[in-house]
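Researcher: Last one for today. Full complex below.
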Amino acid sequence: MFKLSKKADYGLIAVKHLAMHRDQHACSATEIAEEYGISTMLMAKVLQKLARQRIVTAKHGANGGYLLAKEPSLITALDVISAIDGPVLITSCVTSHGNCGAADKCSVREPLRRVNESILSVLSTVTISHMSEEQHEPVLVELQT
Amino acid sequence: MFKLSKKADYGLIAVKHLAMHRDQHACSATEIAEEYGISTMLMAKVLQKLARQRIVTAKHGANGGYLLAKEPSLITALDVISAIDGPVLITSCVTSHGNCGAADKCSVREPLRRVNESILSVLSTVTISHMSEEQHEPVLVELQT
DNA sequence: TCATTTGCGACTGAATCGGTCTGATATAGG
DNA sequence: CCTATATCAGACCGATTCAGTCGCAAATGA
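Model: Here's the assembly. Have a good evening.
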């Protein structure tokens, strides 16, 4: 329906973990997985996807692991989610090569596109450093109705 | 990943259609389905769910069909979507009877809850009348980071 | 050299989703 | 009253997606 995948969830957990252990040692997939009681194999897969999108950098070999590739304030929730699940599109019609059956007859396509943009804007406003801080300053997001 | 179901999509199409044919005759599921090239059976199912949530009212019998139960400006996208797909929760952790494995160890739960609220707020700001109008005045939505 | 750790693709079982079918009930009109 | 037209409800099925696993290759530090 309208949920993020568990993998995306785990991705956010992992990135936040790395943000909190910044400038310390590199964290291995096993270490992170055990800390949160998640399957090691699955966490490894998630971190690999994050590495492929240059959100984290990997260090091979013994005592290796992952480090954040950028500052926590430069990594948005959208970055992490779309690195793992692919582009965020609330309807299949919205895509460029969209093969929506109702095609051009579809009267909700344009309004939904605007809703989609608003959601993207929310997700890209929230950064990892936001998610680590305690204070929560409200931010205004513009919504084209 | 993060998409609305086709049923929810069809629901929005149907409700918008009813809004545009307001104060005329009741529209049958067949009529709406054919107009947008959607399966009749499926459209019927969608409209039944909308009727159960009192978003539309059904008129049985010959020349029956559906009518909007409220003014288009009082029906939000969130109403329609959650009538069909159930409550909008971006993670399974967020729910009240949440059985998230990582449980209380999960460090992203609270930030995601706030993101979820922002999305709900976006979806409940957009009404059916918004989706029918041509003009698009921007609205500001508050986002707790 | 060897233990550790990432990288990648293939695979499986379970859950969800799109869509269909059947039968029951309600109602307008002849 | 009878029939055609609609909604209503739930069971059902095939296809897709998703969570999670496994095996093997490559990199790297000790």
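The longest helix of chain B spans residues 109-125. The mean pLDDT of chain B is 87.
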